[in-house]
Amino acid sequence: MRIVGFRASSSGIATYTAELAKALARVDRVVLVAFGIDRSLKSELVSKGVSVLDLGPDPGWRFDVGGPFLAYGLLRRRVRRALGEGGYAVYTIPGFALGERRPGIVVAWGHLGFWQLLGVGAKWLPHLFKFVGVPNTSAYWLLDNWVFRRAETIVALTSWSFRHYSRRYGDRVVWIPPPVEPAPCSSPGDRLRLVFVSRDLGLPRKNLALVVRALSGLGPYLKKMSLTLVGEGGGRLADLVSRLRGRGLEVRLTGRLSRSETRRVLCSSDVLLYPSFYEELGYAVLEAMAAGLAVVASNVPPFDDFVAEGINGFLVDPVDPKPLSRVLAELVEHSDLLIKLKANSLSIVKNRFNPLAVARQFQKIILGKGR
């Protein structure tokens, strides 16, 4: 089975692709096509039985400036030269199926229509990227749906994307949750250890500003907390951090980390804060749950697929900081609640996002096609 493909610059999609490759390697021979894969992840995948076809560096976002049809047309040509024609494939990025008459399995991201997606781009992309980003957003939507119209099977990762794409493509759409391997490592600490993860901490839609506003109103509670920020700085990050430190909160900046380094940070944390205004999936939430963290995310799709209110975390308003402040104060005061939430995160991962169960669902689809 071929998985096409991994692009380091695709962030959460890259993480999903790697986890899917490991899951499918449990039931089949897997070849993963990869651009920009780092050495440690490649070694991990190989140790799990995945054959990695490393096609060199990921061209990155600059390669996409000419539009996704051009970018993936060129990338697809490189993939074809390496793999040859034919062979059943799972496309985790729809653009890689560009030019295929009848793609096998294509993974669908997101849950918004064309105009909704344009609105998200116009509102939440950084100002410097709006000129290129908004037109590219519309082009990606067109490319994805061009591929979906030809695909044999479309895999939706959340209930939201399943409902959205089922309305357009009917029974060719199946819902298969993303796989994540339970790897509990979070141990108790002497304070409430918060972590916020984003490739770019300054991205407006990631909503670090809400975290700062919520924490700023917690007064004496701050001495019983710490905050780790994982990702590259941007925007007003220095001012925000200075503001929190000035109020007595211990804040640690790690810069951008590899996946294994990020996991070590999760292992020394209790709660993932993820108050984004919009996410297609938010795989970081699942990774945190797999490590045994509670999650406080925004009450927007698709987080209610992962976070059950009061069971393994909380869903809060991404605009008003008061609900987040109340939740954090409650977690400081009630350590027994935190212990319960963390244990339930692991239980949910084991029961609903089991890699072997996911692999068997994919295998059933492929066998049903007579492959």
Helix and strand run = EHEHEHEEHHEHEEHEHEHEHEEHHH
- State the domain count: 2
- Supply the number of helical segments: 13
Percent strand: 15-25%
CATH fold-level assignment of the largest domain: Rossmann fold
**CATH superfamily annotation of the largest domain:** Glycogen Phosphorylase B
Structural class: alpha/beta
Mean pLDDT: 90
Strand order of the largest sheet: 3-2-1-4-5-6-7
Poorly predicted runs: none
- Please write the CATH class name of the largest domain: Alpha Beta
Indicate the overall shape.
globular
Give the proportion of residues in helices. 40-55%
Verbal overview:
By secondary structure, the protein is an alpha/beta fold. It folds into two domains: 2-179 and 354-368, Glycogen Phosphorylase B (Rossmann fold, 3-Layer(aba) Sandwich), CATH 3.40.50; 192-352, Glycogen Phosphorylase B (Rossmann fold, 3-Layer(aba) Sandwich), CATH 3.40.50. The chain contains 13 helices and 13 strands. The chain has helices at residues 12-24, 39-47, 68-83, 114-124, 127-148, 159-169, 208-216, 237-246, 259-267, 283-291, 321-333, 335-352, 355-368; strands spanning 2-7, 30-35, 50-54, 89-91, 105-108, 153-156, 173-175, 192-200, 225-232, 250-255, 271-274, 294-298, 313-316. It has a seven-stranded parallel sheet with strand order 3-2-1-4-5-6-7, sandwiched between helices. Strands 10-9-8-11-12-13 form a six-stranded parallel sheet, with helices on both faces. β9, α8 and β10 (250-255) form a beta-alpha-beta unit. α10 (283-291) packs across α12. It is globular. It starts with a strand and ends with a helix. 44% of the residues are buried. The model has no long low-confidence stretch (mean pLDDT 90).
